[in-house]
Amino acid sequence: MGKQKTINQLITDFIELGVFQQEIDPLDKILKTNELLRLLKKEDFQQNLAASDPLPERLAVLDQLIEYAVQEKVIEDIQAAHEILGAEIMSLITPLTSEVNRQFWERYVFGPQAATDYFYQLSQSNDYIKTRSIAKNIQFYFPCEFGKLEITINLSKPEKDPKQIALEKHAGSSGYPICLLCMENEGYAGRVNHPARSNHRIVRMLVNKECWGLQYSPYAYYNEHCIFLSEVHKPMKVEKATFSKLLGIVEQFPHYFVGSNADLPIVGGSILSHDHYQGGRHTFAMAEAEVNFSFPLDAFPMIEAGVVNWPMSVIRLKSADKEAMIEAAAFILEQWRGYSDKEAAILAYTGEVPHNTITPIARRKGTDFELDLVLRNNRTSEEFPDGIFHPHPDVQHIKKENIGLIEVMGLAILPPRLKTELQEVEQYLLDKPNDLADSHKEWANVLKAEKQPTAATVHHIVEEAVGEVFLRVLEDAGVYKQTLAGQTAFKRFIKTLQ
Fold first, then answer.
1. Residue 352 phi/psi, 5° resolution?
2. What local confidence, expressed as pLDDT, does residue 2 receive?
3. How far apart are the C-alpha atoms of 469 and 463, rounded to whole Å?
4. Is this model's pTM higher than 0.85 or not?
């Protein structure tokens, strides 16, 4: 009886929270209650039960509902089942796509920020954005000559238990949705090898007269981390149309930046199969970096062009003339695609395999448009099989993965293994019992010799050293180094633009 009363109370509280938050119309209380009973496979319910006073926190209620479902064998006790049921429960308080879009665009009339504020709040309150998981991330800053770099050790995605890993291994692929960015994910229940998306909604919008969508990232790395995605499942490609779309997006949402990953392996993002961009309401160190020197673009006199003071190789364009910006960016991309400079280790092609591309980032500065064009090259060599302009072996103990859009702008996304590994480094530096990974030993020995850490300083020393490694990572990924030879080579390319 006690358990029965508890679950009845949880159901009552969940529905009353929805009414209180104006997510459930009072007329829909019975309907929503019965839908929740169906999800929990519960056939009876104690009516007219008073809600708790005060009402509990919603996610605490959600956790207890999932716990009940596990105890009653409604679902298996694995992460995927928890997430699928959780998303289905939260979908009960999530408006239909049509209503979300109506609300969004009605608010847009009062300003783009009013529209995104609504959608961002909805995406948090219905647990699509995993705020509790994101809060687990370890974050700190590293001030350097280029600005304040941001470091994140990504702990937001829950680790899978062995049972789920085994189930995933034997699970087939349905082919639907085709990928994690397809619009068909909207409202999709999920399965053991595909995330739950019952509470997922996408705002539809036009970008260059094409249907695109706006959604938020479930595991955001920065404020209002969003994704703009094509309605059509087609490969990413950086081309003239890319610049038109990016500038078109910031024209519609001037309080957001938007950027595209590069479109080649090694220097590109993790999902190159679906055309999409990432954006958000966040100012990265690269956006605040000053221009080192300006240069004229003779064919585009209305555009300010310059090289940014940044460890990677960045050309910044600025103008109020959107069409001229698109043309100028396309011209620079075309020149870079075919550019080789053996002295600087830059080859445009190996046979017919292309190596040069660009990571573009757009933002609005008052009435001006601003485009940062980050030059990329994905060539490998015998000395650097992972990539010549990729984190080199001596820093891969911290960061081995591709340097994508977010890292390019100055925010390191580091693997979760570092949480415990860096704790062991601290223990080693203090001559305490430790389980130091071999990959960190040489680095740790240098820190011990040079920094003379104490219990009071060791944590700061390690964080600062990680920041220094990330700076090196960016320098490795830069096609033109911050040296006299590197900048001279950069100027050789710039001459081809004049």
1. -105, 5
2. 47
3. 10
4. yes
